[in-house]
Amino acid sequence: MSSLPTARQIVVVAVFTALLSWGLQALTRTAYIEVFGRLGFIGLALLMAYAAAGGLRPRWLGPAPARLAAVVLAAPFAVLATAVATQGGHVATYLDQPSNRASHVFMMVLAIVIGVPFALLAMRGERKVRERADRAQAALDKERLERELLDARLRILHAQIEPHFLFNTLANVEALVAAGSPNAAPVLRHLIAYLRAAMPRLHDADATLQTELQLVRSYLELMQLRMPDRLQFTVTEPARAAKLRFPPMALLTLVENAVRHGIDPAVAGGRIDVGGRTDVGGVVLWVEDTGVGMAETAGPGTGLSNLRSRLKASYGAGARVELHETAPHGVRVELHFQPGGIE
Amino acid sequence: MTPVTALIADDEPLLRERLRAHLARLWPGLRLVGDARNGEEALESFEVHRPDIVFLDIRMPGLDGIAAARAIARRAHIVFVTAYDQYAVQAFEQGAVDYLVKPVDASRLADTVGRLQRQVAAPVRAGAHPDPQLDALLDRLAGRLGGRIQPQPEWLQWIKASSGTSLRLIPVEQVRFLRADDKYTRVVWEEGEAIIRKGIRELAEQLDPARFVQTHRAVIVNLGCVEKVVRGLNETADLYVRGCGEVLPVSRSYLHHFRQM
């Protein structure tokens, strides 16, 4: 909304006043140029008032009433100004004559009667332009969301098991086997469960919260084997949520982050708690660690925004990822969503 | 002749044990004088025992293996141990430093042991002389791993705002604008609003200027959330924020950011 009229508005006013002047000059038998001069001036003055009201936007009046009021208020002044322009200093004597006064009042009424519908039409036009822009924006947003989801899915497909994690874990398994430890078999089972779940796949329709929590538990068991003195963990399944459909790797991403950025850099290690609750407000799942916490300049990484778009794709736009800093140090990530979302 | 001594530094106990068992079999004469769970413990143990050989895991909490190697410098033979780091391995191959890849392969370790035995037996040790070749290698390693091990301080990525008993971490890409409000600053982001203590001036210095721009003494806006800027009187303007219907002031001294808009 600018405070100046558009070129299109000026052309419309000029053409309309030109036509109207032609009709009036036939009626009043005045010179065309004089009638058009007055009407054109009044029309342009009202248009300026309309546009200026749009630009000023007083706080105590809505934009539409403000513009109509500007047109109605400007009309008498514009008409008076044309009288002054044509009569010069003799305005008072000119207006003393009843016939002149009548035509003056007629002009005012005409200005208002024509100006107000024009203002309404102009506002309708502007609203349509705005709506069209909004629709284009909405389409753009939708397209962006779809593209993000596609990206997220592609990244999941490309998600690789981190070689550093794999070889370190294998080194631990080898050590257990070489030492003849009874732990070797259960650890291998955890590794197999983790690898099976972490393999790239196209369809995740049968993934549930229960399978996700099993994956998380396998991963944490492996990590605890590697750093028994530095990692403690709990995984608690929320009530009535086992069969909930859940985008695979979503919780695991958070747990891997908690290990990599929270526990790994902490010399004393820490604990990770994975849990959740379901109530009327929906489902909340969380991953909380007592690691080193997060610097305000820590790179956000693609993992979290990826997770955010997958969560929204699974449960609708209301789904969200919340990060909290916990005392004395550590990070708590919460996933909030309504299980009855889209899909 | 005093026995050759060695120190093992790895944050994973099973892997320390495994390497210890391998060495006991391949080099029965080697005396292992200490275990370390991180770089700092490795340095402490090194100063106490002064071993001839140090096996250093690269990724350890606190002080990592590269920093520990720098501190030990030429006072011991260093063997790096790593699970998987193609960059590190490349760097080792260019330099003269020995390295092992986990899980440790016994025949590969036997080669390393043979090499170490010859080096330890050599009469003259370089002592505390600086070794430019080693320094260059460690610099290269630190540079390659630096992105992961020592993140550079950069622009603000998270805004901490108290919510209830905890501190909420708001990713800056979700922030629409920040506006000073008396003593506090109001943060408006995709999922709500919060009040923080940090002032606008401080925030303006810490936020990425490619993403955030100050429009007024009291206002910073995310450029991605600008719907439009409407010029007003007196070289000022109104800035419409996308998605929340808020209108922010743009004052004369900041208007140049929007000249082209």
The whole-angstrom Rg of chain B is 28 Å
Can you count the beta strands of chain A? Answer: 5
* Helical amount of chain A: 55-70%
Strand order of the largest sheet of chain B: 2-1-3-4-5
* Class inferred from helices and paired strands of chain A: alpha+beta
What would you call the shape of chain A? Answer: rod-shaped
Summed up, the helix count of chain B is 7
In one word, what is the shape of chain B? elongated
Assembly status: heterodimer
Strand segment tally of chain B: 15
Biggest sheet of chain B: strands, sense, closure?
A: 5 strands, parallel
Distance between the termini of chain A: 41 Å
Rg over CA atoms of chain A: 37 Å
Largest interface: A-B, 47 and 44 residues
Supply the helix-strand structural class of chain B: alpha/beta
Mean pLDDT of chain B comes to 85
Summarize the structure.
The complex is a heterodimer of chains A (343) and B (261). With 343 residues, chain A is of the alpha+beta class.
Explained architecture:
The complex is a heterodimer of chains A (343) and B (261). By secondary structure, chain A is of the alpha+beta class. In chain A, 63% of the residues lie in helices and 10% in strands. Chain A has helices at 7-28, 32-56, 63-87, 91-96, 98-158, 163-178, 184-198, 209-226, 250-263, 301-315, and strands at 231-235, 270-279, 282-289, 320-325, 331-337. In chain A, strands 1-2-3-5-4 form a five-stranded mixed β-sheet, covered by helices on one side. Chain A is rod-shaped. The model of chain A has no long low-confidence stretch (mean pLDDT 85). Chain B is α/β, with parallel strands linked by helices and 261 residues long. In chain B, the strands form four sheets. Chain B has a five-stranded parallel β-sheet with strand order 2-1-3-4-5, with helices on both faces. Chain B is elongated, with a radius of gyration of 28 Å. Residues 147-151 of chain B have low confidence and may be disordered. Chains A and B meet through α6 and β4 of A and α1, β6 and β7 of B.
